[in-house]
Amino acid sequence: MAARIISGKEIAASIRAELAEEVAALKEKGKTPGLGVILVGDDPASRSYVTAKERACEEIGIYSDDNRLPADTSEDELIKLVERMNEDPKIDGILVQLPLPKQIDEDRVLLAVSPSKDVDGFHPVSVGKMMLGQETFLPCTPHGVLQMLKRSAVTTEGAEVVIVGRSNIVGKPLANLLIQKNEFGNATVTVCHTRTKDLKRHTLGADIVIAAAGRPEFITADMVREGAVVIDVGVNRVDDPSKKRGYRLTGDVAFDEVAEKASLITPVPGGVGPMTITMLLYNTVESAKRSIG
Ligand code: GUN
């Protein structure tokens, strides 16, 4: 079987068009949604994510307050900036790009973000509400994956889902969302990780495989059953002297060989990446709507 491609780029474009209309309607009511963006240091991958987020805001009319801080910024300085944004009525959402330099305690910074502006869904209050199935900002990558499945008519109800990766940003929240009793959930979920024995035994039993391990081309064709849906969350920079920039982007899935067996598959780039940014825009617009009642 040759897989059909789930284009995150196309799905993201249609959600962004819907959001642009909502932003225009909010502006007519005198409210411009605003996102505060903070990048500390100059990690190249983080820089390109943040630039893409700022560009996406501009495209749909969201005001973005961009803050690029030096790598030696102190934890207190960063927290002061977050607290200023908490109080700023022009800002509806706050994004602190992770990872942070090692002198900064990430947990303390995330705790400083007001849950009412936590558009990343990383504050413990947001995480707790998500786990309890209460209304809150959902973390952007997991939410993006659920939207891709839903908009590609993939049913999660009763499906065997195997997630490879247990990060706080992707694996853990995604597992939680997929077991909720709602239209995006009702799945049977297995979370695999670096200590899993015989990973292939798990992935071969999956209707849906979600690769989020951060290892290039880790999921190979022999690990996936015929007809499975394969979602690739990985974005890895692999050295490639044939490219002008010296590297290429590759996912956690060996795309060409897995596409021969899967029924549906997401590419890298153009898969989950654009969806993550789109769900951030979605949360920012939701926050702006809440702020005016
Ligand atoms: N670093 C990698 N992914 C993310 C994300 O979704 N949000 C933030 N803030 N940092 C990240």
Helices and strands, with pairings:
Blueprint: E1 4-5, H1 8-28, E2 34-40, H2 44-60, E3 63-69, H3 75-87, E4 93-96, H4 106-112, H5 124-132, H6 140-151, E5 160-164, H7 171-178, E6 188-192, H8 199-203, E7 208-211, E8 229-232, E9 236-239, E10 247-250, H9 255-259, E11 264-265, H10 272-291
Parallel strand pairs: 1-11, 2-3, 2-4, 5-6, 5-7, 7-8, 8-11
Antiparallel strand pairs: 9-10
The structure holds guanine.
Structure description:
With 293 residues, this protein is of the alpha/beta class. The protein has 2 domains: 86 residues, Rossmann fold; 134 residues, NAD(P)-binding Rossmann-like Domain (Rossmann fold). The strands form 3 sheets. The chain has a 6-stranded parallel beta sheet with strand order 1-11-8-7-5-6. Strands 3-2-4 form a 3-stranded parallel beta sheet, with helices on both faces. Strands 9-10 form a two-stranded antiparallel ribbon. α7 links the parallel β5 and β6. The chain binds guanine. Guanine (GUN) binds next to β4 and α6.
Bound molecules: guanine
Mean pLDDT, all residues:
97
The SS-based structural class is alpha/beta
Order of helices and strands: EHEHEHEHHHEHEHEEEEHEH
What percent of the residues sit in helical stretches (DSSP H or I)? 25-40%
Query: What is the approximate shape?
Result: globular
Strand order of the largest sheet: 1-11-8-7-5-6
CATH class of the largest domain: Alpha Beta
**Poorly predicted residue ranges:** none
| Total DSSP helices | 10
CATH superfamily of the largest domain: NAD(P)-binding Rossmann-like Domain
The biggest sheet, with number of strands, parallel, antiparallel or mixed sense and barrel status, is: 6 strands, parallel
Count of discrete structural domains = 2
Total strands = 11
Distance between the termini: 50 Å
CATH topology-level name of the largest domain: Rossmann fold
Roughly what fraction of the amino acids lie in strands?
A: 15-25%
